[in-house]
Specification:
This protein is of the alpha/beta class. It has helices at residues 9-18, 28-47, 52-67, 71-77, 80-94, 205-212, 269-274; strands spanning 116-118, 120-122, 133-141, 152-157, 177-181, 187-193, 222-228, 235-241, 260-261, 264-266, 281-285, 288-289. It binds 3-methylcatechol and fe (iii) ion (FE). Its cofactor is Fe(3+). It comes from Methylobacterium indicum.
Length: 310
């Protein structure tokens, strides 16, 4: 027999009471989850003989994490957000759904309400003289390979310093953020600049914990997408640019082989002139396949608190 305190009647009663399981009001499901989380915390404290000093240090960390607005960053870095993808992939598989462009995490830096363009857009507004111009094109398709006209491709990415507009106040409003409605052939196109991978704020609370885990806080260069169309399941995904040194070392675990895209350098003068550019640029091509919505499938629309632009 174990002599764990977790088996003791008074500890079990404490957990039940703390989680509100001894009363009939409140939220039944939440009570059960709180009971489990608390119980796991108690058991961890006991198993590791966590000292009060260590315990209060952790409480202080959580306080500072919230104050620094980095909770969404930490859950990405600890693989929790990726685990939600693993879970949803598995639920879909069990429900008989296969195929379609793989999902990967949203991350903490989306902003609702980006300007909506028809068919094509230019995303880069702020001058970045050393940036590589990119032209990205592709098609949104249904599971049979037919184009999906009128789909909305919501795209957001970082600048050459790894920063995202709104969160990085040095950038103008909506820089590198657009919604693009696919044309009659289901196609989208945009001009932008090649993003650089993101790094956690070096003095931030997330990096503070990562340091103590012996981990870096870097992401490879990537571009985020939500793809939505009536009758189809919302897709949350990203593409990774091939060749980045962190491609398979993403601190947020979001890289998937099917989402790696090779940038093709274009130097032909006629191609440069055709697009009205002043020098060589890179092209990226990626087609999205959306799955059809059905009642028996798990929800893909995630409600979560987002920053809202003023
Ligand atoms: C990002 O740009 C990002 O996509 C994620 C998941 C976490 C931090 C920064
Ligand atoms: Fe990102």
């Amino acid at each position: 027999m174990t002599d764990s305190l977790m088996q003791r009647g008074d500890v079990k009663a404490l957990l039940d009471k703390a989680a509100g399981l001894d009363n009939d009001t409140g939220d039944r499901r939440l009570k059960q989850i709180v009971r489990r989380v608390l119980s796991d915390a108690f058991a961890t404290i006991e198993a590791f003989q966590v000292t009060p000093t260590e315990f209060w240090r952790a409480v202080d960390y959580v306080t500072r994490l919230g104050q620094s607005n980095e909770a969404g960053l930490l859950v990405a870095g600890l693989g929790l957000e990726h685990f939600l993808d693993i879970l949803l992939d598995e639920e879909e598989r069990k429900a008989g759904l296969e195929g379609g462009t793989p999902r990967t995490i949203e991350g903490p830096l989306w902003l609702a309400g980006a300007p909506l363009a028809q068919g094509e857009a230019r995303l880069d507004q702020d001058p970045e003289p050393d940036a590589e111009t990119i032209v990205m094109t592709g098609q949104v398709r249904d599971p049979d390979g037919n184009p999906v006209p009128g789909a909305v491709v919501d795209v957001w990415h970082a600048n050459t310093k790894g920063g995202y507009s709104f969160f990085d106040s040095s950038q103008s409003a909506w820089n590198l953020r657009r919604r693009i409605r696919t044309d009659g052939d289901g196609r989208y196109a945009f001009r932008s600049i090649m993003p650089v991978g993101y790094g956690c704020p070096p003095d931030g609370t997330t990096q503070e914990l990562l340091d103590r885990l012996g981990r870096h806080g870097q992401r490879p260069a990537h571009i985020h997408f939500f793809v939505e169309a009536p009758g189809y399941r919302k897709l949350t995904t990203q593409i990774n640019i091939a060749g980045d040194r962190y491609l398979h070392e993403d601190f947020a675990f979001a890289t998937r082989d099917e989402l790696i895209v090779e940038a093709r350098r274009e130097t032909a003068p006629e191609e440069i002139a055709r697009r009205g550019l002043s020098g060589p640029f890179s092209t990226l091509t990626f087609d999205f396949t959306l799955n059809r919505e059905a009642d028996h499938l798990p929800e893909t629309v995630v409600l979560r608190a987002h920053a809202t632009a003023a």
